[in-house]
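Before the break, one more example. Copy the sequence into your notebook; we will annotate it together after we see the structure.
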Amino acid sequence: MYYTTIRKILNNNPCDPIKVIRLAGSIDYNLPIAFKHIYDRTDLQDAIWCICTLDYDAEIQQFALRCARSVEHLDETDTAKKCNDTLEKYLKGEATREDLNKATRAATTRAAIAVTWATWAASVALNAAAGAAWAAAWATQATTASATVAIRTARDVAAISKDTKLLKQIEQDFLTTFCME
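Here is what the structure looks like once it is written out:
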C-alpha cells in the first residue's frame, strides 16, 4: 500500500487546496495517509494526481505503462504500441535509453499530428489517438510527475472514448497497485 501526506499534497500545488484540507480533517498534515483513504474520500482522478507526491519507483512506471497499454489500440498507426513495447523492453534491460528516446520522439510526433488533425476535424477518435500516443510518450519518462501525466492521460482517453470497461480496468489496476496491502 502506498502512502503520502497532506503536506506533500499541498506542496505539489493541487487545483483545489480546500478539498485537500477537507480530506485531512483533523489529522496532522505530516502523518502518512493511505491512497485508499484518498480514493475513498475523493475520486480516481484526484487519487491518481496524488501519485506525483511519491518518490519514483519502478512499480509506478509499470503502472503508467499498463495504463498507456490500455489505450494504445486507439492509435491506428501503432506508434503508441511501439513506444510501449520499447519501454517494456527498456524496463527489462533489453533496450537502450537511446531506443527509448527514439520511441518517445515518434510517439510525441504522432500525438502532435493527431492533435492538429483533431483540432481541424473536431474528431473525438483522433483526440483519443493523440491521447494514446501522449500516454505512451509520458510513460517512458522515469519520474513520478511524468508517470502521473501518463496515467491521467490514459484515464482521460478512456473517458473521451466513453469506454466504461477501460475506465473500470484502470480504476481496478490503481486500487490493486496503490491501495492493497
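Residues 3-53 form one domain. Confidence is low (pLDDT under 50) at residues 117-126. Try to locate both features in your own notes.
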